[in-house]
Amino acid sequence: MSTLVLLTLTGLGLGALYFLIASGLSLIFGLADVLNFAHGLFLGVGAYATWWAATYAPFGVAVAVGVLAGTILAVAVELALIRPLYARPIQQVLVTVGLSAAGVALLQAGWGADPLTFTKPGWTATTTRVLGAAVPNDRFLLIGAAVAVFAALLLFLRRTRYGLIVRAGVEDRAMVTALGIDVRKAFTVVFAIGGAAAALAGALAATYFGSITPGLGGSLLIFAFIVVVIGGMGSLTGCALAAVLVGLVQQFANYYAAAGVGEASVVLLLAVVLLVRPGGLTGRTAT
User: Fold this and answer.
1) Is-contact 245 15, C-beta < 8 A?
2) I need a labelling partner for 201 at 20 to 30 A (CA). Which of 39, 52, 143, 159 fits?
3) What string of DSSP letters covers 70-103?
4) SS3 for 170?
5) What is the DSSP letter of 232?
6) Does 257 have pLDDT greater than 90?
7) CB 42 within 8 A of CB 70
8) What's the rounded Cα separation, in Å, for the pair 191 and 25?
């Protein structure tokens, strides 16, 4: 029983991490039709900025610094590189892939290729007993952060003007433009939100894994894309459901089969979902 509880909560924690990365990725693709392969760079910058700030400030402040760094980078990328290429999808892919590779190289040049140890702060370094299982508290931190981000994004999408524009733009961007609404500002807002969520994922991934590397964002981005496709392009709710499913499948398969089987199981899950529901679990809708 204790093993089942530990695996479930660890899988939920991993799924929460995937959701934080994939939520912004899903909204960016749903509204702007941009496959942003540089999204992992926002995570990496958030992780390294948090690691750097943690040597001078409390953990909460360090996380805020990491989120701010990721947000600023995301906005700069959208304004300088993505905005001129909205009508050229192939160039978008080339630019974001190149930016991702260049970003990893810059992180490696600045801090080296070796993993940097991240000392878990206070409460996150301890465990809590749940039905006999000693569960690391960083799992609860990830789950709580993901739930908070999910709730905040739902409120943004359903209760704010820009949120309504995003939802309408996901459904029919041409119609929104025809109504005289400048969706370019909404693009920038969505990129900022995506960068902030990815940077938060980077900060919390450091506590989950205990270390950070220049390639951390790229490796996690693969699973984020899988989550987005399984959940349905542009669907926040689908993204959350898919993240939980992927995290649990990966965790249980790795434990009960062998290391590496979890990753293969996730790919198999993706194939099955695409065969049964090509549009994903919930289809294309920003709700």
Assistant:
1) yes
2) 159
3) HHHHHHHHIIIIIGGGTT-HHHHHHHHHHHHHHH
4) helix
5) -
6) no
7) yes
8) 9
Q: Which two tokens mark 204?
A: 């919390």
* β-pair type (211-212, 133-136): unpaired
Instruction: Give the tokens for residue 132.
Output: 């006999």
Nearest partner of 216 among 145, 146, 114, judged by Cα:
114
How many CA atoms lie within 13 Å of 251's alpha carbon, on the beta-carbon side?
A: 21
Element (H, E) at 116: strand 116-117
Cα distance between residue 173 and residue 181, in whole Å = 10
Q: In sequence order, which residues have a C-beta less than 8 Å from that of residue 83 and are 6 or more positions away? A: 184, 187
Q: Show the CA angle centred on residue 125, arms to residues 25 and 140, nearest 5°.
A: 45
Residues 96-128: tens digit of each pLDDT? 999 999 999 999 999 999 999 998 888 888 899
Q: Tell me if residue 55 falls in helix, strand or coil.
A: coil
Give pTM, 2 decimals: 0.92
